Amino acid sequence: MLRSSEAKSFQGMTMKPTAYVFDAYGTLFDVHSAVRRHAGDLGPQGQQLSQIWRTKQLEYSWIASLSGSYRDFWELTKDALDYALLDAYWQLDCYPEVPTVLKTLKDSGARIAILSNGSHDMLGAAIRSAAIEPLFDAVFSADDVRCFKTDHRVYELVTTHWRCYPEAVSFQSSNRWDIAGATNFGFNTVWINRTKEPDEYPQHPPRLILPSLEGLLTTS
C-alpha cells in the first residue's frame, strides 16, 4: 500500500479522483429487495424482518473481526436469517441510478471497483443479476484478507492492488460506520445517505453527503 504524509488530501482540490470504489450492499444493491420478492408470503412483518436481518448480518461481521473468528459473509448471512429466504440475497436489485452513474464515471477514464464484506461468490452473483458486470475494473472482497471492515486491511486491498495513495480514491458507501472507517484510512469518502440517517461519527466526517449516487456526476 502507498501512503504518504506528504501526499495532499483530495479534499478541496479540483482534480478528479482516479478511482471510484463502491461498497456493495445498501450502496449499489438494495438489500431489502430480497425480502420484497417474498412480500406476499411474509405479510406486513416483512420490512421489520428485513431490517433485523441486515442489522444482525452486520453485527455478526463486527464480532467475527473483533474475536478473530473469521467466517465469510455468506456464512454470516445464513446465521442472520432462516435458510428459506437466502437464495434471494444472491439476486439483489441495484438502485435505479447505478448503471448510468457507473458507466458515466468509467467513460470519464476513472477506474471503478467494489469493496465489500461480501464474498466473491455473493458479489459476482449480484453483479451478474444486475447486468453491470462489464462496468467494473476490480471487485475487492474482505474474504481476501479474512477480516471485515472497518479493519484497515480491507481498505488496503484497493491501494495495494492499484498502487495508489488513499487520497486518489473516492469511496462511496451508504453505511456511516463504513465511511468512518474509510475516512480514518485516508480515502476521500462520500456518504450515500439514502434514508436521511443522523450522523453518528462526526469525528470522521465524509467529504460529501449525497442522497443517491446521482450526485457524483455533478460534484465529482
CATH secondary-structure class of the largest domain = Alpha Beta
Q: Uncertain spans, ≥5 residues at pLDDT below 50?
A: 1-14
State the shape. Answer: globular
**How many distinct domains?**
2
Going by CATH, the architecture of the largest domain would be 3-Layer(aba) Sandwich
Helical segment tally? Answer: 9
| Beta-strand content estimate | 5-15%
The number of E-state strands comes to: 6
Q: Which sequence of SSEs, written as H and E, runs from N to C?
A: EHHHHHEHEHEHEEH
Rg calculated over all Cα atoms: 17 Å
Distance between the termini: 24 Å
CATH topology of the largest domain: Rossmann fold
- Could you name the CATH homologous superfamily of the largest domain? HAD superfamily/HAD-like
The strand order across the widest sheet is: 3-2-1-4-5-6
Structural class category: alpha/beta
What is the mean pLDDT?
A: 83
Helix content: 25-40%
| Sheet with the most strands, sense and barrel status | 6 strands, parallel
